[in-house]
Amino acid sequence: MSGIDRTPWIEELFEEGHPNPERVGCAPVQPYLDALAARRPPFDQFDSTHPVLQHVAQCSECVRAVRARQLTALKTRRHTTGWAALAAAAVLLLAIGTLRLWPELLDGWHTRTKSASFPSKLHLDLRRYSPQRGDPVSATAAPLELAPAAVQATIILPTGSQIGTYDVQLFTDTDLSTSHLRLRADARRDEYLTVIDLPLDLTHVPRGTYRLALRCDSPEWHLYPAVVR
Known about the structure:
The protein has two domains: 8-106, no CATH class; 120-228, Immunoglobulin-like, CATH 2.60.40. It contains five helices and eight strands; from the N terminus they run H-H-H-H-H-E-E-E-E-E-E-E-E. The protein has helices spanning 8-16, 33-38, 51-56, 60-81, 83-101; strands spanning 120-125, 144-146, 150-156, 165-172, 175-190, 193-201, 208-215, 222-228. The protein has an eight-stranded mixed β-sheet with strand order 1-3-6-5-4-7-8-2, with no helix packed on it. The chain is elongated, with a radius of gyration of 20 Å.
């Protein structure tokens, strides 16, 4: 595609900066990638709160998939749409890059979702647990019940938990170096409760036992037993 002024390091950042070889979270967004690449509704207007765009902004594999669709469409339409189509593709890529390069613009986006993408609801009440930092809770505590699906989760944190931005991961039970989920979400007050709302995509997580891990302003994790059935 001669004549296109491209900045290689920016393209490399967009397409390689957030590798996701296990394709965590990719399944629910796949039906939307054609519309995203073509900037058809609901992507004709840039909305940083849309969960599909949030995922693509953090997934190099999906960025490359969108880019491939755009390039294919441009080759097909180049004689009828010319540089206008190329400009539209560049604007979308720049918008996704903005989500990457200036994370402060995303403040609060991770707690807002659209029910159409994550229709199921899941409530996880952690108040019955008394975790120790870096260690799992008592082995006698019943594990949290999870399903290999994409859901909108509400997590009720243990009594006394602080307000702030939490890292949320799902570790393999026997290997705390292997994570199947990486999210950040803001905790809020709901009367006397401390609550986190966030989308959980576990569609590619194998059935088995895990540790749901949370931390806020700390290098150490609070670990909770969980099982994916």
